[in-house]
Design a protein that fits this description.
This protein has 293 residues and is an alpha/beta fold. The chain has a domain of 164 residues: Ribonuclease Z/Hydroxyacylglutathione hydrolase-like (Metallo-beta-lactamase, Chain A). The protein contains 10 helices and 13 strands. The strands form 2 sheets. A 7-stranded mixed β-sheet has the order 1-2-3-4-5-6-7, covered by helices on one side. The chain has a 6-stranded mixed β-sheet with strand order 8-9-10-11-12-13. The longest helix is centred in the last third of the chain and has 24 residues. The structure holds zinc ion.
Length: 293
């Protein structure tokens, strides 16, 4: 049974730790007419989701909403949609094809986790097309008296959405606003775009949410400070990686530079896995932009 905590009126949060996954996936349940789930996580999380729903007395779901189609957020969407046949799956227009035909998600997950990833993460199965609701930017989903506004928030991935709960002015921000704690940039190789990530943060700052429901780590109650940090870190570390790589500095050394700077500013080092992903991800990104050979 996962440790389920109420983080705002009607909003419940729990983590499902997956062996070998450095960033523990977080799932949210909104207990309101019909019920909604944000972040299915990988399929291996489905039994814990069932237990959490039983614990909360939630019998079904009207909406299943992955913020984006990476395995630790949306990998279990097909499995959950089969368990809750009345639920509609809400996704960004560019996420839909990866849910209906998940070949690319299966392929990229296999590259990172190994071909036998199903043993740890569970299977990635398709969502029937009839079960999908393509979310326009700004569209509002009603859940009893509750309004959930879907906002396109690209940058971390090309199919990322965030969800604003208008009742609490809380934002389910996925990975659009950095990694939790100190908002280190989540530079997923091959899907991250720095310019878009930065302009998304600026757009979301204008919404002035009161709190941020992160999809890894805890809830940020000082949303303004967290968003400013996300913006600053994206600028500081992208520049640091680019300039060091242009000087010919080795990846391992760039990781030390970034880690040292981060500890000076925040009194702690980012996790090694996050450092590795950010540095490698920025190098891949700047190569794709022609800024690095
Ligand atoms: Zn992601």
């Amino acid at each position: 049974m996962p440790d389920v905590t109420q983080v705002a009126p009607g909003i419940y949060r729990f983590e499902v730790a997956i062996q070998g996954m450095p960033e523990v996936p977080v799932t949210y349940l909104i207990k309101a007419a019909g019920g909604a789930l944000i972040e299915p996580g990988p399929a291996a999380a489905a039994p814990a989701i069932r237990q959490a729903m039983d614990h909360l007395g939630m019998r079904g779901l009207a909406y299943i909403i992955p913020t984006h189609i990476h395995v630790d957020h949306g990998g279990g969407t097909g499995t959950l949609s089969a368990l809750f046949p009345e639920a509609m799956v809400v996704a960004h227009p560019r996420g839909v094809k990866h849910l209906v035909s998940p070949e690319r998600l299966i392929e990229s997950t296999g590259l990172v986790w190994g071909q036998d990833f199903e043993n740890l993460l569970g299977p990635i199965v398709p969502v029937p097309e009839t079960r999908l609701k393509v979310a326009r930017d700004g569209e509002v989903i009603r859940l009893g008296g509750r309004e959930l506004q879907i906002i396109h928030a690209l940058g971390h991935s090309p199919n990322h959405i965030v969800i604003l709960d208008r009742r609490t002015n809380g934002l389910f921000c996925g990975e659009a606003l950095g990694l939790p704690g100190y908002q280190f940039p989540p530079v997923a190789p091959y899907s991250f775009d720095q310019d878009i990530y930065v302009s998304t943060i600026q757009d979301l700052m204008r919404l002035q949410p009161d709190r941020l429901f992160y999809s890894h780590g805890t809830v940020e109650t000082d949303a303004g400070r967290a968003m400013s940090r996300a913006l600053e870190n994206a600028r500081v570390y992208s520049t640091m990686v680019l300039e060091a790589a242009q000087r010919g500095t080795a990846l391992e050394e760039i990781m030390v530079l970034v880690g040292d700077d981060f500890s000076r500013r925040y009194g702690q080092r980012p996790a090694r896995a996050d450092l590795e992903i950010a540095v490698a991800g920025y190098v891949i990104y700047f190569k794709s932009k022609g800024l690095l050979a």
